Amino acid sequence: MKRIVKALTAVVLTGAVVYILYSSFRSRDNSSEDDMVIYSGIGSKIASLDPGNIGDTSSSAVASQIFECLYDYHYLKRPYQLIPKLAEDMPKVDEDRIVYTIKIKKGVYFTDDFCFDGRRRELIAEDFVYSWKRLANIKYLSRNWWIFDGRIKGLDDFREYTKSCKSMDEVDYSRPVEGLKVLDKYTLRITLTKPWPQILYLLAHLPTAPVAKEAVNYYGKSIINHPIGTGPFVLKKWNRGSYIEMVLNEGFRDEFYPSQGQEMDIKNGYLADAGKKLPFADRLFFMLIEEDPPMWFLFLQGKLDASAIPKDNFQQAIQEGQNLSEELVEKGVELKTYRNPSTYWIGFNMEDPVLGKNKPLRQAIACCIDKKHYIDLFTNNRAEMAQGFIPPLMKSYDPEITERGFHCDIERGKKLVEQAKQLNKGMLPVLTLAMPSTDVVARQYGQFYKKSFKEIGLELEIDYMDWPTYLEKMHRKDLQMFQSGWIADYPDAENFLQLFYGKNVSPGPNSFNYINAEFDKLYEEASVMPDTPERTKLYRQAQEMIIEDCPAVFLLHGVAFTLHHSWVENYKPNTFQQGLSKFRRINVEKRRAYKY
Amino acid sequence: MTDLSRTIENTHKPVKGRSLWTDGIRRLRKKKLVMICFWIIMFYVFIAGYVQIAEWTGSNWPANWDESTGQKYESPNSQNIFGTDIFGYSILRKVLYSTKISLKVAFFASILSIVIGVPMGAAAGYFGGFIDEVVVWIYSTLSSIPYILLILAFALVLKDKTIFGCKLAGATTVYLAIGLTSWVGICRLIRGEIIKRKESEYILAARAMGCSGGRIIFKHLLPNTFHIVIISFSLRFMSFIHAEVILSFLGLGEKNKPSWGAMIDSARLDLPKGYWWEMAAATMAIFFISLALNIFGDALRDCLDPKLKTD
Q1: Options 2.40.160.20, 1.20.1250.20, 1.10.3720.10, 3.90.180.10; which CATH number does B21-61+79-308 get?
Q2: In this predicted complex, what is the ipTM?
Q3: pLDDT by residue (tens digit) across A503-543?
Q4: Which of A41, A113, A487, A538 has the highest Cβ tally under 10 A?
């Protein structure tokens, strides 16, 4: 008996040793095949790969390699320009700008999957109707319903109907919706409730990507783990908490690298692959790295192709003058800087009895903030001073605005404070600024503001709070002043204008609770206009109105810095477009030659 | 003969009796290191007091920690001997101001823990029975929760609350959170000591004379166990300074004013950039007071505890 036990133990141990050796050799083999792989880091766990319910940037970055939308942004052209993707062409719009007729590309297929019973499944117009009705289904609890809320005729009624259904399975998707019609297999007609020129930007937004009904029915709730899209890559392995691996979609249609771009694109080598078939990479690896230091070290070791610059490593990466440090230049690292469609500000609650009725006080505060110093202290000079809310990235940005607005002027601020005191009929009370965090950086911001306010004779108290408390107080209009900002969802300044629209007051996006009938009239007129010089004029006019009324002190517009290794080619940053991996090419020789 | 009589006279010269405290102080004075530590502690107390008075009287230095004294991130130099921070504020002034915050928090937290712990321990030890069971149950429950987590929970609950019309914020929240959670140790010690002493002859005599329980506790038992309170105070004072540092580091302490914890938290971001002086100044300040309190507390225990008395 003992002999048998001994023999069995020996067999098990030998088997274990052989398995370990085999695994290690196999993984080595894999690593040698890794040449045409793009390695990316993601900073937070993937919540879902179901586009209808995606709300975070990490999930979007991954899912956008698999799913596609009707439209997309041109990879190279600036200002950002929409081009057809799953659509055959740009839509035909009627004179009233209410009815959009969209032709779908023929010969686009979902990736092969069990749910299609072994048949190739072509994308048809009905898939869009199904996917958007699914967003409206209240039982689905999509966080992206805001996209279509009140926009498409009959879709809100469909949402009301789903409230009466007991479960998701009971919802009848064949129920007609007036504004979503399938004219033929490849033609879709959308009827809006009122003109909405921004619809095209939203049709380039990942949550509006089509999903196949068969896949949703087959996988049920676990559809979040089984993304079946039409994009260039398919999910191979999702090791939760570790990595996601994608491989080339063998059935991907013929799509080609753009042949046109900006003038500088030829010089920068972005057009070297013009007209070549996409994608270039065979595999994608998304590694979950939640902390900045490992992300940075993996990048330096060449195990990640690109990385943002962690705040703590900024000095190591960037020299004075915003150039790449010699150490990184020697390693062949390249720096890309680009503008973010963002604006940050100190907002005033216009319903506050002290600030709301005291314009000189608000303007005085606008005069006391030294924005240049602020940008130097807190952003490593990775920002541009803001005088208005429209960021320089937008077409409607007014370049002359830098001359206007409120600049740091302590003397003017002091005079305005005197006026504010007269208006207040006495001394001004201690003001309170809410910060949406309690960490050390927030405390540093707080100290900066206190010091700035003190210079014009105002006393400031900082109320540090966690994010949920901050949001709750903001929605209840409980904050007097707050530090906040906005990153545009699409390249249209309307996205910023709506933040000051009277009907959007808290709990809506107008946290300033700013109400101005004249501004509202301008907004209502401009927001339904197509992109014309007249609209740009109205946008700028609205912005001037805001600068004068001063419901916020605009601080800065963000500028992003990103690094990539020289072996990653065609690395042109794009703020709005997603699913960019298909454009990237890996120079295998350069990667092999890299030494840490 | 004369010599002998002198010897007899000297032998009968009355020797002045020494109380526990006099004896303790005499022993402490003999130890040089302990006296150095004592003067270090006094120096910190003096700084804290000076800053507090400067604030009350509106004097500038060093209460005006929020005034720039140089450029941002100046390394230690003749004008700013500990350098400057991101805003050009003097690190020296911040360290001095933080001394007030930390010592104030540690002092009030110690007082609060004694005010809660001593009467509860005394009552539990003297009366026993149901009262003892309740007190033991409460402190056993509290001590089963990890200390830092308990303080964090209390600090989060107390933060921004209004009690009797006063809004709890900053240092008040911190010393309430520390004081309300750290009375367990002193309570246990006092309970044990009272149990030991309540059957002593002088207590039996007091009881025979008809003294009430309260009188026996406060008049006879507590004065005889007070050295435990003092020793515990000195040793816990240091741990309360550390607790304040931890809370401030985690963003639950004083936010609008500097404290050692907040300085370390802030310096954490500056270290990778090579700006070490804020971190160095705050940790040195904590190091010296911790070391001094530790050595002094240990010596105090040695001198006041009859079992450990060695000369």
Answers
A1: 1.10.3720.10
A2: 0.71
A3: 999 888 899 999 999 999 999 999 999 889 999 999 999 99
A4: A41
